[in-house]
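In this supplementary section we document a worked example of the pipeline. Step one takes a protein sequence of length 249 as its only input; no multiple sequence alignment statistics are reported here. Step two produces a three-dimensional model, which step three serialises into C-alpha cells for compact storage. The input and output of this example are shown verbatim.
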Amino acid sequence: MKAKVPQIFQLSFYKFIKNPWSLIFGIVFPIVWTIIVGELWGSSQVSDAKHISVMDFLFPAVIMMMILTFSLSSIPIVLTSDRINKRVKQLSLANVSKHQYLFGIALFNYCFFLAIFLVCWIIASSAFNLVDSYQMILTVLFWPVIIFSIHFLIAILISNFSKTNTTAVFATFVILYFLLLVSGATIPSYIFGDWFKYLQYLTPSGCGILIMTACANGLKQTTMFPAYLILAGYGGVLGYFALKFFSWE
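The serialised model returned by step three reads:
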C-alpha cells in the first residue's frame, strides 16, 4: 500500500493541475471568499456575545465551503470517469485495491484542502481579527477530518449511481450547490434567524458548521447533541452504502 498510494496521489495531482476549473474553485475562490467575508464582517461583533467577533463565528462556515469544494466539486466526476474509461480496471489488474485507490484520492484532496485552509487561516488571522484560541485550533485540526470523510462518502455514492460523466457532473453540482446554500457555508446563518438552524440540521454540512462554530468559540455543547447524533448517523449510513455499492471493476 505504501508504494501504490503515492502513485495515486501523484496521478490525482496531475489531473488537478490540468483542470483550470479545479485551480479556480480549489485555490482562487476559497482565498477570495475568505477576503470577502473578512472585508464584510471581519470588524463586527456577534450581538449577543461581545467576546466573539463575527469572523470567529463565520470562519467554520468558510472551512465548510472549502471542505465541500475539495470533497464534492470534482471527486464524483473523477471516480465516474475512471470507471467508465476502464482506468480502475487497469489499476485492479496492477494489484491496486479499491481501498488503496479511494484512500489515495481522499488523501490528495484532503492534503490540498489543508494547504489552502492554512493560507486562508493566515489571511483571516492577520488581516481580519480571527482569534487563534486553543478552542479554534483544536476545532480546525480535528473536525475537518471527520466532516471531510463524510462528504467524501457522498462523492463515492454520487459516482456509484452515475452511469455517464454527464450524469455525474449534473448530480455533483446539484448536490454541491444545495449543500452550500442550505448548510450556511456561503450565507451567514444568523442573518435568517433561529429557524435556519433547523434547516442546517438536515444536512451533514449544516451539522458540521454548527458543531465547529460551537467548539471553536466555546459555546454550550448541550444544544449541539442533535447535531452530533445526526452527523454520526450520516457517517454510518453513508459509509455502509458508499462502500457496499462502489463499483471497482
